[in-house]
Design goal:
By secondary structure, this protein is mainly alpha-helical. The protein is elongated, with a radius of gyration of 23 Å. The model has no long low-confidence stretch (mean pLDDT 84).
Length: 109
């Protein structure tokens, strides 16, 4: 009765798919991070470098959310109900930064 809660797994391949998915995710994120380091030390500072970093950061963020928060396995309506507000909030922040600066320059410039 003492080992009634002890379950032995005799299948040596148990969890192989999960391990394969974890290693795939590891390698993809490692390659993206290595590309970021390569770009950081080779591309001269400017708009191109900043744009590349922003795009790569967004790609990594979406991949991490999809893999580790299991969003890619959800229904499309849930994914869109999360993505659309994020896009609008990012657009709002950018618009406020740009227009706020223009209003500040018009008043005090």
């Amino acid at each position: 009765m003492a080992d009634a809660h002890h379950i032995q797994n005799t299948d040596p391949n148990a969890g192989a798919e999960q391990r394969k998915a974890i290693w795939k995710t590891f390698w993809i994120l490692l390659i993206l991070t290595a590309l970021e380091f390569l770009i950081a030390f080779t591309v001269p500072h400017g708009t191109l470098k900043i744009t590349i970093f922003i795009v790569m950061t967004i790609v990594k963020a979406f991949y991490i959310v999809g893999e580790f928060m299991h969003l890619k396995h959800e229904t499309k309506s849930l994914i869109w109900s999360i993505l659309v507000p994020i896009v609008f909030v990012a657009w709002l922040i950018l618009a406020l930064l740009l227009e706020g600066n223009a209003v500040f320059d018009a008043i005090f410039g």
